[in-house]
Input
Amino acid sequence: MTGPADSELRTGRRVAVVLTNLGGPEGPEAVRPFLFNLFNDPAIIGLPGLIRTPLARYIAAKREAEAQANYNIMGGGSPLLAETVKQAEALSKILADVLPGDEVEVFIAMRYWHPLTEDTARAVADFSPDHVVLLPLYPQYSTTTTASSFRKWRELYSGSGQIHSVCCYPEVDGLIEAQARMITETLAKAGDAPVRVLFSAHGIPEKLVKAGDPYQEQVEATVAAVVQRLGLTDWEICYQSKVGPLKWLGPSTPDAVRKAGADGVGALVVPIAFVSEHIETLVELDHEYRELADEVGCSPYLRAPTVSVEPAFIQALGQMVLQSLATPGVAPQGPAMARDNPGYREGRTLCNCEGQRLNRRSRVDP
Ligand SMILES: C=CC1=C(C)c2cc3[nH]c(cc4nc(cc5[nH]c(cc1n2)c(C)c5CCC(=O)O)C(CCC(=O)O)=C4C)c(C)c3C=C
Ligand SMILES: [Fe+2]
Ligand SMILES: [Fe+2]
Output
């Protein structure tokens, strides 16, 4: 990766890089409180707290047994933290090389389970940083993920340092290269059989997109870049993991698998909005949809691994940290930091990158 320009090589800075992610329960007893935290987030259920909190308690209790059964397939808990730690370690190594004069530490802040944002905010404050870089492990920006994590950080962090944030990176080269590699390696297993590439993203309710959430547009941008790089001809975007009664983005991944079966082709499912393995890949894609594929005669059924610690992807993360540090940050709890995404509030398809249109190549927030 490209190192910093001489002018950027300021030494002696204390830099905290905060990887934000969703979090997952480490064991069966953590499933219900994890689900409660998730459904009690106003970014997930947009109702006033007086209604949302009891509703979240009810939904968490109702989903508990089914969710525990799914987590049991992975040994009882989520591998998401362990996966994120691996990514943090890989990023640390790269940053030590490219910022040799600075003291850089990579932290993890999970939105719904440990290490929770409040604990990480304290640990980062104890580190007394000059700069904090918020780096979501979500390539595509959504009000339900990145905006929610940023908002929580803003509420809870009261330590030192300028705050920089990377809002999204749907088309960043290292991500596309890593995704393309995962697909190529998996496609090789299909031999001569015709296979449709199904780009499967976690869904969100359609009404959020109508209100300006740029997630769908950014998922499409990632897919377009991968399709172009590989010259794919038979492919489709679909959305998985629907929860609740609202209409979500479609087509659903199960419907796309059924269609592939009906069309007499196999499927290579690519988790396009996840960068590490967890319940939605290891259970939903590898178990539930594989069974469905067997039932509907969609064969072969293959799944590309997530980009995880692929060097191209981790280098892209490192590059975005550098770019982010090279632009002025804002004071903690300053008004400019992802303040509820102005484009979203106004119902326009903008992210909060200085109010610019979304079709820029890489989007790194100041
Ligand atoms: C791109 C990433 C994600 C988006 C967008 C997202 C939106 C979203 N999620 C739910 C509800 C659930 N998500 C659950 C697990 C889960 N979700 C993501 C990522 C995104 N979610 C990840 C990485 C995980 C896995 C965590 C793990 O433990 O490994 C769950 C829990 C599992 C289950 O019970 O099915 C729920 C519930 C909503 C409602 C939503 C948008 C409105
Ligand atoms: Fe989710
Ligand atoms: Fe942005």
About this structure: The first helix runs from residue 31 to 39.
